[in-house]
Amino acid sequence: MKSSNNDHFFWCYTEEPHRTRRQAIIKAHPEVTKLCGPEPLTKYCVLAVVLLQLACAISLRHTATFSIPFLLTAYIIGATANQNLFLAIHEISHNLAFRSPIANRLFAVFANLPIGLPYSAAFRPYHLTHHKSLGVDGLDTDLPTSLEAIFLDSILGKAFFCTFQIIFYAIRPMMVYQLPLTQIHLFNILAQIAFDYLLVHYAGPNALAYLIMSSFLAGSLHPCAGHFIAEHYVFEKPQRQQAPPTATPNNKSTAPPVPVPETFSYYGPLNLLTYNVGFHNEHHDFPAIPWTRLPVLQEMAKEFYEDLPHHKSWTWVIWQFIWDREVGLWCRVKRKEGGRKVGGQQDWREDELGANEVKGVAIPGVR
Questions:
Q1: What angle do helix axes 205-218 and 165-176 make, rounded to 10 degrees?
Q2: Any alpha helices (H) in 60-154, and if so which ranges?
Q3: Separation between Cα atoms, residue 231 and residue 228, nearest integer Å
Q4: Using one digit for the tens of pLDDT, what is the confidence trace for 202-249?
Q5: How far is CA 34 from CA 93, 259, 277, 304, 316, in A?
Q6: ∠ CA(228), CA(234), CA(240), 5° rounding?
């Protein structure tokens, strides 16, 4: 683990930790694979939140866009609800709402409607690549680019990033690599345009403005938005001084330092609103286990998780990220090699993450 004078990312030359830990957990607790598979409750939660957002949008159709009632509703209810839908789409991207892959694709488009802009179809391959290529430079689009880290390496820069991070997460993937336009992408776009048109036609432009403002605030300075930063940014400042192994006079290498953790969990109450996305080490270890069973996994294999560093507050994460001069966009683990691109031209198989979409064969712990 090292960084150069001009590049302050934590460069790692080992495999990402989740595959190794998954194998160890399966060996110690083979029954863990029974937790994999769709969660029927997800579709009802999504339906309820979609209807809630539609009701709020219609009720605010005659309310001034920048009035206090409009802004408070968009921040307190709308942003929380749309963050919930962001993470529902995240859950659905792993085929965890239905057993049928096409049902999951279509349901993700439905969950996307109150967000106001189409993104569910594009999110899935980028997100699965994030799992398959965690920390790999040029593949993992969750990683900030060097350009972002250089220009936003200040308190004001980090405050700007946190305020507009939803825009960074929307644009950055396309700057790293582009996906081909597929039928599901086209359907996502057309369905969203049709929904937005009908909403404006029957409820007026303020209704659509509420939904888009809710999406912006959901990825801005909002407590639930803290998960974007909490999941993979390194806050353990002493780890920045780690050095690679050194050789002794007897040509024997000293023990390597403990690797910098690159995924962090959060076990607080906001998980109730966010599909347990705070159980993030657990999710990366077993992406085929749905949100309702991640606490079961954590309890079942607690000897693997209890000593891992974790966050206690997403709000504090945002505050510390902005004000702590030792923490910033450079604080991510990167690696040059490993991983593959989902939806690329390589011999990537979609059955390696999410449900097996080819032969229906389960993959232990991943499925």
A1: 80
A2: 68-73, 79-93, 101-112, 120-132, 146-151
A3: 6
A4: 999 999 999 999 999 999 999 999 999 999 999 975 444 444 444 444
A5: 20, 30, 20, 18, 35
A6: 160
